[in-house]
Amino acid sequence: MVFGDLEAEFVDMPVLPRARPDAACVRADAAEIASDPLRLLRRPPPHHARAASSSASASPARRSRSASPHYGEPSEKLKREESIRTNRRNKFVDCLAREDVDMAELRKLAWSGIPDDLRPLAWQLLLGYLPLATRLRASTLERKRGEYQSLVELTFAKGKDGLDQQIWHQIEIDVPRTRPGVQLWMHAATQRCLERILYVWAIRHPASGYVQGINDLATPFFQVFLSAYVDADPEDVDPAILPARVLAAAEADAFWCLSRLLDGIQDNYISAQPGIQRSVRRMAELVARIDAPLAEHLAAQGVEFMQFAFRWMNCLLMREISVRNTVRMWDTYLAEGADAFSQFHLYVCSAFLVRWSDKLREMDFQGIIMFLQSLPTQDWTDHEIEMLLSQAFVLNSIWHNAQSHFSGK
Asked: What is the pTM for the complete model shown?
């Protein structure tokens, strides 16, 4: 079954062309990392990760000041920020290197963001894909990757003619549209991996099948796990340069982690998508309480929350922000626990809408819909995402224990 047609909502996001790294960017120990993710802790973060982290965490104004020779003070601030990042990374390393990882400590650290080079291991632990006990991880990875490979071989044994044509047709349409303009998702190797991930998941979950939007949810996992094996921004990489065994490992890990995420929001994708319907109703009620003037203006203009918030719930805001922003957001979601992609996400979406309240209250119906379908978030960094998460945390703290006040149950 295929539900939730989002075809009209795809918007191309142009990006500046960037040089494509060659095979030299593949880490010499990529195969060893695939077998033993703890190797990520035993080497300094790659240069691109340090640069990306510094840039992503700075607000646009702060980046502008730090780049100017007339500002001496920000350079000292940057040194302090680098020292803070180093100290935080050391805490992560200490936590992840233990024989049995303390999940409570890992979640506490991860809430404020995970260092790029440690994120592949941290995400797999937070999702429960990897066991907390170090001694069990190698056998777990071997077993789960072997299981996925067997599923792929069995599923595609008869070629495309042996597939469910309705599901496969929709996947073939959606995969080339995934993250338009980002080089990683334009490469054939990436698209073939994504096709297999989505189709195998769909046939293992017949109650929902494939639903448009799930393709978006797979992208952070594949991109994060790919980053473990390259010394470059994964968005610039053609996965075909990786050894076949390493690429297969990244694909399998992405499949299982996507599966664990979707297990927690399964009712978003079954017939009639009741999980999304419920979340959108609750969001409308929450916004009416925290920003009554905005809610009243939307109602007066005939704007229904389902017209824009359905996509926010279905795709977890991935059509509204970049993958880099999404990855940072998911650090916090994974730290929050199993319900975060449904419960905490509700408060994130509410804070996200209220952020634009002043502008929206000056617009008519057409202006509101057009604005909400193409929000000005292209230049967002970790700074904006962390502000949004903080606002959502406050809303969650106030309203989460007041569930009886919501009629949209």
From this structure: 0.88
Torsions phi, psi of 100, nearest 5?
Answer: -130, 110
Q: Longest Cα pair distance anywhere in the chain, in angstroms?
A: 66
Per-residue pLDDT tens over the stretch 253-282: 999 999 999 999 989 999 889 999 999 999
Query: Cα–Cα distance between 55 and 378 in angstroms, integer?
Result: 14
Question: Is pLDDT of 319 > 90?
Answer: yes
3-class SS of residue 26 = strand
What is the DSSP secondary structure assignment for residue 337, as one 8-state letter?
-
The 3-state DSSP class for residue 316 equals: coil
Nearest Cα residue to 233 out of 39, 11, 48: 48
The residue to which tokens 């448009």 are assigned? 212
Name the DSSP class of 45. P
| Residue 408: closest CA among 308, 295, 279 | 279
Q: What is the CA radius of gyration of the chain?
A: 21
Nearest Cα neighbor of 197 from 251, 264, 140, 266 is 251
134, burial (CB in 10 Å: exposed 0-12, middle 13-18, buried 19+): middle
Please give the Cα distance from 276 to 279 (Å, whole number): 5
Query: What confidence tens digit (pLDDT) does each residue in 129-172 have?
Result: 999 999 999 999 999 999 999 999 999 999 999 999 999 999 99
Instruction: Answer whether 127's CB lies under 8 Å from 261's CB.
Output: yes
